[in-house]
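Input/output pair, single chain:
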Amino acid sequence: MTAHVATHAGTTGASPTGGAGAPLLDVRGLRKHFPVRKGLWSRQVGAVKAVDGVDLHLAEGETLGLVGESGCGKTTAGRSILRLIEPTGGSVHFDGQDVLGARPDALRAMRRHMQIIFQDPYASLNPRMSVADIVGEGLVVHGLVSGRAALADAVRDLLVKVRLDPSCVNRYPHEFSGGQRQRIGIARALSLRPKFIVCDEAVSALDVSIQAQVINLLMDLRDEFGLAYLFVAHDLSVVRHISHRVAVMYLGKIVETGATADLFAAPKHPYTNALLSAVPVADPRRRRQRIILRGDVPSPKNPPPGCPFHTRCPAVMDQCRTEVPPLRVAGEGHSYVCHLPPERAPLG
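Output:
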């Protein structure tokens, strides 16, 4: 079931900045390969290509939805951008600074402006720390407040921002519901006044009604503080509501990117079309033809040659099995990687 979010008008148009100027986040050729080792000497015999050449860009105040099936590399990409996982290759520039080449001190300062909201709102919180300690830890580490009274005031202000009762500062994570724990995680991410937040499946573990509340909260915070989000999710209805642009990921690669309205109205890649066909339609009079993909997702340890989607694609051609598909432009800001030209691409 999908969260129904109705208090916002939606963000299905172009990015707030219109793509002008240098992006806040610029990711090029990002790779993360996990080595596969065997034998007594742990000799590397292969690699799991979880992320294999991802290009992304994100403007200030923009939300980019990153979608795809489980195991496609979405979470690994988000964590690699923040260097919570060390990438194998590529480049990441944030606000003009080289993230992957930064030394520890520079990276620590940079991380004040790059935060993450984790999927599991319980496992991501230390059960031995109170709410005051969890939310205030970053403020102390980065020296943003001086004195216990100032710290207590800052924590209470953050709890009010995420719509929690500030009187709960001395309680512990197990005393809260899942939605309340996720709000604590949001307050922690917000405490350093970041410019960019990776939302790693931030609402997927919550009840449907709570999903709507948290999504609306994230949108309000984005508007108030000018935040940029990389919104990692598999629920396309939620992504459609919160995102300015959408990037579709399959087997470690981005296969289609475009403004939300364009991509949902006229998907060009067969994989995107299949994903959209699975989204429930609220109107019972409308029927959407479901596209059932055949077979399983190939192993990222041994991806197929040519187009990685050709083993499941309903529009597969001979050249798909041997040739890497080109990057095609379907309109302003809308591109996809496929052998099908725009005039032959499927429509949603």
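Residues 41 and 335 are 45 Å apart (CA to CA). Confidence is low (pLDDT under 50) at residues 1-7.
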